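For reproducibility, we list the full input for the NDP complex.
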Amino acid sequence: MADERTTGVASNAPEGATVYDVVIIGSGPAGYTAAIYAARANLRTLVLQGEQLGGQLMITSEVENYPGFEDGVLGPELMDKFEKQARRFGAEMVPQDVTKVDFSAQPFTLWTYNKQYQGHSVIIATGASAKWLGLPNEQRLQGRGVSGCATCDGFFFREKAIAVVGGGDTAMEEALFLTRYASQVHLLHRRDSFRASKIMQQRVQSNPKITIHYNSEVMDVLGENAVEGLTLRDTQTGATSTLPVQGFFVAIGHQPNTELFKGILEMDAVGYLKPATHTMTSIPGVFLAGDVADARYRQAVTAAGEGCRAAIDAERWLESRGEVNEQTAEDAAAWGALNETHDAASDAERDATSAAR
Ligand code: NDP
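The corresponding predicted structure, in tokenized form, follows.
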């Protein structure tokens, strides 16, 4: 049981209720890596995976830059491996969305639509979701030609003309992927240069099936029951035009999934959560991992690294709580002291290594 495994962690949970040492929210690279580390550290670990398992990699095609896979790996396959690895060490999985949290008292409480869970610590790894443009007919035509996922829907556009909007790596990747199916891919970008990596830009520029439209703003999607075209505006001249396409893929970046934590945890203007000390938030025992707190790198490998950091921080924090019954300021102080001890030990080890060299 949780309280037996985590030495000295006292609980004020209802008698008989399962209290996990670590509850992880989210099942992307960050969540699963946190689960691997926490479960392997013999902490009773629960992953509230969400209804859409596996995070953003489930809607990605080939992942070419995850270390250890020299020939690339499919996103869903990679996440399946992560999940199996976490299960191997005993992490429990529940494929439900968290609908509410209470971080005001120990143990923390989390609700799904039909159940309540408790944990001494929580790692938030809810990631980010694809953004939409907010055009008048964008939502209405979703599933009828408007899509946010080339891997999921590209197949339906064989020999059709389609458009992709965006200038980052996602847009490049989607446009390239869609050339497998489409007769022609129009890549629409609001500025005169892409922000995507050079290698992806080069691949797009040298693909004969892709036509690039710089300085093009999408004003609306046309069509009654299916996409028939787009209204475009030239951002330099202001001139509008119609581009006939049967598919429209939106690839303009992501929004962190943090609605649940509004008013509870500190976040920036966009909604990314902010850590207070290392991966811990201003609420002792609540940790962050992955894209939910990372507007800068947002890579599968960095998210996995964050999951590892958060699990190690959670483990140290649980260890530091000792006999403390309630969540108090001492928790944070003890955790800080423990970190200092670990940091001092690492410094001493590093000094000894350099002296030996
Ligand atoms: P980015 O934030 O990098 O790019 C978003 C793009 O969408 C920008 O070009 C932006 O334009 C445009 N955009 C944003 N809002 C609007 C709007 N309202 N109307 C029109 N255009 C808009 O997001 P990505 O999802 O592309 O990439 C995120 C991160 O993931 C990056 O770090 C990227 O490198 C990484 N990634 C890596 C991949 C790989 O290596 N295989 C694959 C996919 C992503 P503007 O440039 O004008 O701001």
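The chain has a mean pLDDT of 89. The pocket of NDP is lined by residues 65, 133, 165-171, 173, 190-191, 195, 197, 252-254, 298 (CB under 6 Å). Both points were considered when choosing residues for closer inspection.
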